């Protein structure tokens, strides 16, 4: 089956779908994106993803391209046309097409909208979660506005590749004060030996993950203690459990950091439980 993408008003075969070479997303990474998980053909936590999209757009002074109800219809249509039952849908909005000049186009141009979707292999993801994944640490190399979900991901690309080169799944950023911020494409969590769940505060220095926000609710309902604070790689290595969260992986247990096993070197029971409980709390529509 050929894959279908939506590009600025048209549903096209992915092999034909293209954006203008002067799209500012292409030339300046002048755009933002969202990724929603698809479960049973439906989008997970769409309202929260759209709220974050609108915030990212506002922070960059890019116009909202259309009503969110219309964006929803398009995203659902891309999911439907690609016959995705389990997977992800990707939405990208850029400032639009204009002759190359760093300043914003004047007058304004229409933002560009691209939507793609792909199936993920549920059994493969579940098997990875049951094995757990390894992370490395790397120095924070990003601009301070990581709260904006910008398509400017080159630092994240380099961090992820460094992890792969070292035989790991993900890189955890460490800031100049020695604290873990987040992963190249996920939020980072640890669970102490006395059962406290620790993740960095979303006030600054990380992307405020939607999965993270739902997990905060899951933790409360399970009466698990949450501490939103900084932690070091050493505290992670000494923790009972660790995991990462994101829309495409939900909860993925972490079993080692820089080669040091975490806990008994196996996925922890709490991380696996959170993974299991997550969709009971997520909005699926
Ligand atoms: N942090 C970064 C840098 C990310 O790229 C992502 C997701 O792509 C996340 C955190 C997790 O965010 P969410 O749970 O909304 O997918």
Automatic annotation (TrEMBL):
UniProt similarity note:
Belongs to the class-IV pyridoxal-phosphate-dependent aminotransferase family.
The family database entries (CDD domains) matched by this protein are listed as: D-AAT_like
What's a Pfam family this protein contains? Answer: Aminotran_4
Q: Tell me the function of this protein.
A: Acts on leucine, isoleucine and valine.
* An example Gene Ontology molecular-function term: D-alanine-2-oxoglutarate aminotransferase activity
What's the protein here called? Probable branched-chain-amino-acid aminotransferase
Q: Which NCBIfam families match?
A: PRK06680.1
What species is given as this protein's source? Tardiphaga alba
Q: What is its EC number?
A: 2.6.1.42
Keyword Heme assigned to the entry: answer is: no
- Which pathway features in its UniProt record? Amino-acid biosynthesis; L-valine biosynthesis; L-valine from pyruvate: step 4/4; Amino-acid biosynthesis; L-leucine biosynthesis; L-leucine from 3-methyl-2-oxobutanoate: step 4/4; Amino-acid biosynthesis; L-isoleucine biosynthesis; L-isoleucine from 2-oxobutanoate: step 4/4
The protein's enzyme class: transferase
The UniProt catalytic activity note for this protein reads: L-isoleucine + 2-oxoglutarate = (S)-3-methyl-2-oxopentanoate + L-glutamate; L-valine + 2-oxoglutarate = 3-methyl-2-oxobutanoate + L-glutamate; L-leucine + 2-oxoglutarate = 4-methyl-2-oxopentanoate + L-glutamate
What are the record keywords, sorted? Amino-acid biosynthesis, Aminotransferase, Branched-chain amino acid biosynthesis, Transferase
């Amino acid at each position: 089956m050929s894959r279908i993408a939506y590009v600025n008003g048209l549903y096209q075969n992915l092999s034909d779908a293209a954006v203008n070479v002067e799209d500012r997303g292409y030339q300046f990474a002048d755009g933002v994106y969202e990724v929603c998980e698809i479960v049973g053909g439906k989008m997970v936590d769409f309202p929260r993803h759209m709220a974050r999209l609108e915030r990212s757009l506002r922070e960059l002074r890019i116009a909202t391209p259309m009503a969110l109800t219309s964006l929803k219809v398009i995203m659902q249509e891309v999911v439907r046309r690609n016959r995705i039952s389990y997977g992800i849908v990707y939405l990208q909005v850029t400032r639009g097409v204009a002759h190359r000049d760093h300043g914003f186009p004047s007058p304004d141009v229409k933002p560009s909208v691209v939507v793609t979707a792909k199936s993920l292999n549920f059994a493969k993801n579940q098997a990875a979660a049951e094995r757990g994944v390894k992370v490395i640490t790397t120095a924070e190399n990003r601009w301070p506005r990581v709260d904006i979900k910008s398509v400017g991901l080159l630092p994240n690309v380099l961090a992820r590749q460094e992890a792969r080169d070292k035989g790991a799944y993900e890189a955890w950023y460490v800031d100049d004060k020695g604290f873990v911020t987040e992963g190249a494409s996920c939020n980072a969590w640890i669970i102490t030996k006395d059962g406290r769940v620790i993740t960095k505060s979303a006030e600054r220095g990380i992307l405020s993950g939607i999965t993270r926000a739902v997990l905060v609710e899951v933790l409360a309902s399970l009466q698990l203690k949450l501490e939103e604070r900084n932690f070091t790689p050493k505290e992670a290595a000494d923790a009972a459990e660790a995991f990462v969260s994101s829309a495409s992986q939900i909860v993925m247990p972490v079993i080692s950091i820089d080669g040091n096993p975490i806990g008994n070197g196996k996925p922890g029971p709490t991380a696996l439980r959170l993974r299991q409980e997550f969709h009971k709390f997520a909005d699926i529509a």
